[in-house]
Specification:
Strand content: 25-35%
Shape: globular
Keywords: ATP-binding, Folate biosynthesis, Kinase, Nucleotide-binding, Transferase
CATH class: Alpha Beta
Pathway: Cofactor biosynthesis; tetrahydrofolate biosynthesis; 2-amino-4-hydroxy-6-hydroxymethyl-7,8-dihydropteridine diphosphate from 7,8-dihydroneopterin triphosphate: step 4/4
Oligomer: single chain
Bound molecules: adenosine-5'-triphosphate, 2-amino-6-hydroxymethyl-7,8-dihydro-3H-pteridin-4-one
Distance between the termini: 22 Å
CATH topology: Alpha-Beta Plaits
Order of helices and strands: EHEEEHEEEHEEHE
Protein name: 2-amino-4-hydroxy-6-hydroxymethyldihydropteridine diphosphokinase
Number of domains: 1
InterPro entries: Hppk, Hppk_sf
Pfam families: HPPK
Helix content: 25-40%
Number of helices: 4
CATH architecture: 2-Layer Sandwich
Largest sheet: 6 strands, antiparallel
Length: 167
């Protein structure tokens, strides 16, 4: 089944972190790379004032893994790359969200699918629509239609940055 994962970083070497995270996600069996979106520089949504912009991208994959196993994989990659020792409890350099996993719908606090905020997040929907123009959010409809109602001004293509498929 198809899995769509969203990657974000707003601290440290943001692009390097995204590329390393992508490579690690596909380092073990059960998850096959299909396509990475372009990279976008995006205004932070929510959170504390004065944050740096994020780099965001979306990865489309095929998986045989159950959604929870995929979440564990994503979390272990987050833990491997996701913290810098700037300060204790310092902010994360990497966030990986599961956006959709096939047509799985679940409403557990540990794993909500589709991701509960995807339909309002231009920083996910813009890259997703580029990587997968036919994408759909179960229960919400086509990515392209969801995007039509959103303000995309804070989401800027970084043509100079391109994620490679996993080594
Ligand atoms: N679809 C999902 N993808 C990733 N994590 C999820 C999902 N649904 C629920 N979670 C849970 O959310 C928690 C992650 O919280 P975290 O602090 O990373 O939120 P966040 O990524 O900062 O915020 P947001 O959820 O708004 O993107 C994890 O404990 C995880 O179990
Ligand atoms: N632009 C942008 N804003 C965010 C992001 C993100 O990835 N990009 N992630 C968040 C928590 O998951 C909160 N806000």
């Amino acid at each position: 089944m198809k899995a769509v994962l969203a990657l974000g970083s707003n601290l440290g070497s943001r692009f390097e972190t995204l590329q390393d995270a992508l490579d690690s996600l596909f380092d073990a069996p059960g998850l096959d790379f299909v396509r990475a979106s372009p990279v976008y520089e995006t205004d932070p949504v929510g959170g504390p004032e004065g944050q740096r912009p994020y780099l965001n991208a979306v990865v489309v994959a095929e998986t045989t893994l159950p959604p929870r196993t995929l979440l564990e994989r994503a979390q272990s990659v987050e833990n491997a790359f996701g913290r810098v020792r700037v300060e204790r409890w310092g902010p994360r350099t990497l966030d990986i969200d599961l956006i959709v996993v096939g047509d799985t719908v679940c409403d557990d606090p540990d794993l909500t699918l589709p991701h509960p905020l995807v339909h309002e997040r231009a920083f996910v929907l813009v890259p997703w629509s580029q990587a997968d123009p036919e994408g759909e959010v179960p229960g919400h409809g086509r990515v392209a239609d969801l995007l039509a109602g959103l303000d995309v001004e804070g989401v800027r293509l970084r043509e100079d940055l391109k994620l490679q498929g996993p080594d």
